[in-house]
Amino acid sequence: MNRPFNGFPAGKTRLIPLPAAFFSELLPQIDHPAELKVTLYAFWLLDRIEGEFRFFKAEDFEEDARLLEAFGKNPQTARANLRDALERAVQRGTLLKVNWGEGESALYFLNSPRGRAAVAALQKGEWSPEEIQRPEVRLTVERPNIFRLYEENIGPLTPLMAETLEDAEKTYPVEWIEEAIRAAVESNVRRWRYVEAILRARLERSEHEANRGKSEKDRRRYIQGEYGEFVEH
Q1: Can you tell me the distance from the alpha carbon of 126 to that of 105, in angstroms, rounded to the nearest whole number?
Q2: Helix, strand, coil shares of the chain as percentages rounded to 5?
Q3: CB neighbours of residue 49 within 10 Å
Q4: Cα gap 16→48, rounded to integer Å
Q5: I need a labelling partner for 137 at 20 to 30 A (CA). Which of 55, 113, 204, 230 fits?
């Protein structure tokens, strides 16, 4: 049995746009869980691809191990179920499928104005998939933001504390805050004031090192510069 979902985290998070027609027209028609999964994943994947022509291959889905786990207990069954779900989405009209190249690799496009225009341009020879550089996109477990990290390790997240954390994000890198919270837990001092003290000390140390580096650079410029021959060193 899978672990229960802990809920959506507080704070800023990336949102995936879905057209209103997905809810009013498409969602009521989808009667197969696997088809719904590939449909939502397609929206998520295409949102992370930049450029005028956005498409994906079945391999993009299959190579995402975290996604593949949702389609079967073993890879062979999972791939078969995934391919079947993709075909269902094509048959429903959610996705457009184009066979391309000598091996007739299947390309999938969202059945949207942009997707239909990309297919039309492809069929006219106006662009080629080989010319498009696409990033490797995979489902990953997102790092806990500082709000969740605070709740799990320090205490309840009150409105006032949420504001404090938001201010901290503006002052310190998120990585510093995460490391400071972990340091507080390791020291068994689960208080925000302790975390804040760690952050202030690190900021002061960082500024001191930066100023020292700048002073050293200025000193070398003075010694090695135009008037360097007149300086005893």
Answers
A1: 18
A2: 60, 5, 35
A3: 15
A4: 9
A5: 113
Helix residue spans in 93-228 (DSSP H): 113-123, 146-153, 159-171, 174-186, 192-224
Contact 55, 129 (CB under 8 A): yes
Among all chains, which residue has been given the structure tokens 């088809």? 35
Q: How many Cβ atoms sit within 10 Å of the Cβ of residue 66? A: 10
Cα distance between residue 109 and residue 34, in whole Å: 18
For residues 205 and 133, what is the distance between their CA atoms, to the nearest angstrom? 42
Specify the pLDDT at position 37. 97
| Calculated CA dihedral for residues 163, 167, 168, 173, nearest 10 degrees | 130
| pLDDT value at 35 more than 70 | yes
Segment 45-64 mean pLDDT: 92
Do 177 and 164 touch, CB atoms closer than 8 A? no
Two structure tokens written together for 201: 């000390």
